Amino acid sequence: MQDILNDILQTNKKYANYGQVATYIPELKKARRDDLGICIIDKENKIYAVGDYEKKFTIQSISKSIVLAMALMDNEWEYVFSKVGMEPSGDPFNSIMKLETNDTKKPCNPMINAGAIVTTSLIKGDSPQEKEERMLEFFRRITKNNNIGINYDVYKSEKISGDRNRAMAYLLKNDGFINGNIEEVLDLYFKQCSIEVDALDLARIGLHLATYGIDVENGERIISENVCRMVKTFMVTCGMYDASGEFAIKVGIPAKSGVGGGIMASVPNKMGIGVYGPALDKKGNSIAGTKMLEDLGKKVQINIF
Amino acid sequence: MQDILNDILQTNKKYANYGQVATYIPELKKARRDDLGICIIDKENKIYAVGDYEKKFTIQSISKSIVLAMALMDNEWEYVFSKVGMEPSGDPFNSIMKLETNDTKKPCNPMINAGAIVTTSLIKGDSPQEKEERMLEFFRRITKNNNIGINYDVYKSEKISGDRNRAMAYLLKNDGFINGNIEEVLDLYFKQCSIEVDALDLARIGLHLATYGIDVENGERIISENVCRMVKTFMVTCGMYDASGEFAIKVGIPAKSGVGGGIMASVPNKMGIGVYGPALDKKGNSIAGTKMLEDLGKKVQINIF
Amino acid sequence: MQDILNDILQTNKKYANYGQVATYIPELKKARRDDLGICIIDKENKIYAVGDYEKKFTIQSISKSIVLAMALMDNEWEYVFSKVGMEPSGDPFNSIMKLETNDTKKPCNPMINAGAIVTTSLIKGDSPQEKEERMLEFFRRITKNNNIGINYDVYKSEKISGDRNRAMAYLLKNDGFINGNIEEVLDLYFKQCSIEVDALDLARIGLHLATYGIDVENGERIISENVCRMVKTFMVTCGMYDASGEFAIKVGIPAKSGVGGGIMASVPNKMGIGVYGPALDKKGNSIAGTKMLEDLGKKVQINIF
Amino acid sequence: MQDILNDILQTNKKYANYGQVATYIPELKKARRDDLGICIIDKENKIYAVGDYEKKFTIQSISKSIVLAMALMDNEWEYVFSKVGMEPSGDPFNSIMKLETNDTKKPCNPMINAGAIVTTSLIKGDSPQEKEERMLEFFRRITKNNNIGINYDVYKSEKISGDRNRAMAYLLKNDGFINGNIEEVLDLYFKQCSIEVDALDLARIGLHLATYGIDVENGERIISENVCRMVKTFMVTCGMYDASGEFAIKVGIPAKSGVGGGIMASVPNKMGIGVYGPALDKKGNSIAGTKMLEDLGKKVQINIF
């Protein structure tokens, strides 16, 4: 496996040249476009990793899958799905249009911004502080990394330039899908996007989902089997922005990407995968990272279909 | 398994009352709303079946998955995907809008009408007759049923009332996604929708996809492994109309439904499933049939995620 | 003329039964559905009026035409039209969709909410207080009524339930069409909507536009001829929500309606018209009020086309 | 007036360089981009003309206004407006989307392609030949030019490349807005677009509408006053494609343009105007032609608002 990883890293490094680092907030522009790394942890807890797998970056949209898990653990599932849908949207992640044209006006799914703002609003806690602490604690447990924290420069940058998300949140409030103070919900949303991780952390999360919620080291359960399945299902149908369908055809595994350059993938019963490569394609996915997963799929049978 | 099927049939028969048989063409209105049947064929070729599993009905949209397989076998994959996309549309199956608002104007995927008209146009043959014969022959091989044929009353009905599909086809021609004579393409499309099957036939197709293309009886291969995986992937992301995401969350298996009341499902490495229940929900899926699959998933581990 | 007004009031009173008073904010629900009044002031300053023409109500969207005039007087026209378009939208007044699908993302025109929030942001003043005072002063001059003021109950109600407008405003800020503090802009917008007028006040405004900006009593000019023409043009193409085209065909005069039940109309070179009738049709126009104007057009040549 | 026309022709000739002749059918590409001409006929039947005002070109969308008049004379108005709406669409002339997203699915208005295909289908006649003859005869009477005929090269070109219009027509048939044979309706539609005129002919049509249907030479009436008003109303709200609102603000007169390079305008009670300039802007309007009308409006009071 280590050889395979070395190989696909070398083969795909060139693709970074065809992509661009995210530029919508100044902080993200600082990423080095050529960075590339991948980490795999298998069911036996063996770790394989190459390249910039220990480089820190912000988790961005990948957090949507973890916050979805929290929302499903903090609330009745029916309640959650009365506030956010289960369908792929066919539109870009930050689209507002469907909130108006949909019969229900409900966000299509928890993997687009509108849906993730809703799931964020469903995290329980007596105060904004408690919600933030519960969220960070959950990320620390699921990554088995107590150093997980927020990159405050990115967070502030997100908050200042977050008017499009703000617009969505007010529309969602207007239509009854979010209760409470919008700025508080958005604050937690921007914080969740600004959590710093590396590819190793992502592989750990992917493994956790791959084992249906059981920690391979100590046998403890953090997330229930059903919630793990739901999260992986959304990762397949909506995890790679509006290239989710193509990724499912070409690679065929649950995966969630973020504009920070990360991809977290999970091969049921087999392994968790973390990828870092901040050069993005037009849809917002790591361009070399996606190519590495395609190549991995050609060499190792990971396709679930 | 037989007991489980008896059980879920009884439990879910009542749901037919909440649905309606398709009415957009007169022929489909003749279906008996209360009919319900299910058939499973497992990898050992064991057949379990209850209810109206031998009742004939027209395959309708389920044919989209088989014609996709043919298109992928008759053409270079790249060529096929230059004419039809890979993404869920987030819109109803007969929507025209995305053909206009999409950057590419390409049909989103081969499971909506626009996309299936494209894949139909990609079936090879020197004449309309030869294309029709090749298509029928392929359906006969994959169902292992030489009696498979077209219901000409439904076909004529489809053809007469097919102006919406005709509109799509001309738009697709205008935008360069279909070549050739539109009425010929539509004729083959309407014929494919009007092929008569029963739940047993559908289970056989599902099994074929579940075994990655190998006939469990004689070890022969009809469809390649990769094409089987692609078809199943599209079934997950787009197979159940605009309830595909919900079905993936609740059942988690590749499935394709048709407004004739059929559902063809495939559990990789395990079984093929055929369902018949013509009472449909608002999105066009068999209402009791979907419920039966949900219940089956609660009793047997079939979820692939 | 007085006889004609008496006549059309009687004939059309019954239509109130087919409409509903606005209910999106509690305060508007208090209106009496059966109220109906009309007032005409001609070029010779003769006033004709019947029914509830002195009943107070909030001006709502009618203010959009006056604030547009202010924005065009406070700024270079080119600057104004770099922030708001000139085209009918074909969509409901509170639609967000076009802000996303339009090439420019600019609000289509100043008569829909999004556009009016932009023109409101263009009113000059060193402080929110000064802007509000300038706006009220302008309304008082143009209505020749020094008692014009804000209904604070309606204003508070608008502000509390204004999350859809808030969403639009943040989207407009995100896309560069509004600068500055959003809550301040919205506050002025909600206040402008909550200004109290009667049909007499509206007729006076209409007359002012009809005389191209010259006060018929003292010959003073408040608005320039060109701005008057522009406002009347927008009233024709976009003044009656998404029934503007129908109103232009059936009546053929510049008119602007509000969900408070008012219609302000202007017949160039002839007269100003004010209408009050709070029972609205589905598109938000006074149902009996619109019918009265249709009937007026059958008896008096007012059609400008 | 003649001096004014000479002047504005010289001033605006340069704008042709910023536009392009229509290229969607080969025949239209043959136009000379630099051609420019304008013709005015006033109420006293005085003709003023400069430049290429006798150059022949195909009428294209300008025919929509004349066919609308015919449809309104051949049918009850209520029936016509049950098949086509009265609202500006806010979308390009050949947009299909609104046919799907509109509540009614009705074409928005008779000035976009979809709407004009409907009005074409409403022209009376016992056979396609009779309909064509009646249409040509009407064009000849209204232009007072017996030589009016069809450019068959353009017509054939339109017919071959007309799949987008064909798509619309089938959708309209599917939704009940067109009856009868689609190819016959389209044939008449393509023929109407291919009628050859010059700027003089267009000025004559514009004058006819300006005098509310009375021939200034012989006092005969061809079109009723009300139909003239309706046609001019649609010209204002929807006559200049999706720049109609801007044209109304900048010039303020009823006008209808075509991609052949013509503009037919009508100043009520004053004059008819015909323009020819085949270099188009992005929205499909003659670029120098539009500029000439703007300049004319600055020198002569023609604005109706």
TrEMBL record, chains A, B, C, D:
GO terms (molecular function) for this protein are: glutaminase activity
Q: Where does substrate bind?
A: S61, N113, E158, N165, Y189, Y241, V259
Does the keyword Hydrolase belong to this entry? yes
The EC designation for this entry is 3.5.1.2
| One Pfam entry name | Glutaminase
Keywords attached to this Swiss-Prot or TrEMBL record, sorted alphabetically, are: Acetylation, Hydrolase
BP term (GO), one = glutamate biosynthetic process
The UniProt entry, under InterPro entries, shows: Beta-lactam/transpept-like, Glutaminase
Q: Which family does it belong to?
A: Belongs to the glutaminase family.
Alphabetized HAMAP family for the sequence? Glutaminase
How does the record describe its quaternary structure?
Homotetramer.
Q: What is this protein called?
A: Glutaminase
Native organism is: Romboutsia maritimum
Gene that this sequence comes from: glsA
